[in-house]
Specification:
three-stranded mixed β-sheet; about 30% strand; alpha+beta; about 60 residues; 1 helix; two-stranded antiparallel sheet
């Protein structure tokens, strides 16, 4: 894996806290006019979730 690909992969991981649950993508604070439809992601049990639209990787932090 090249350094550029590794950097892009790392940049696409979004850390969220339990206070932000239920988790939706895009996040409520993001401008949504040019993004995909809002989808709710199950993250509480596994601690990680990936958006099926944009492939953003979310990681739950405690």
């Amino acid at each position: 894996m090249s350094a550029e690909v590794a950097q892009q992969t790392q940049a696409s991981i979004v850390k969220v806290s339990r206070e932000q649950l239920p988790l939706s993508c895009p996040l409520p604070e993001e401008d949504v006019w040019n993004l995909h439809p809002r989808v709710y992601l199950p993250i509480a049990k596994s601690g990680e979730a990936v958006c099926p639209y944009c492939s953003t990787h979310y990681r739950l932090i405690d």
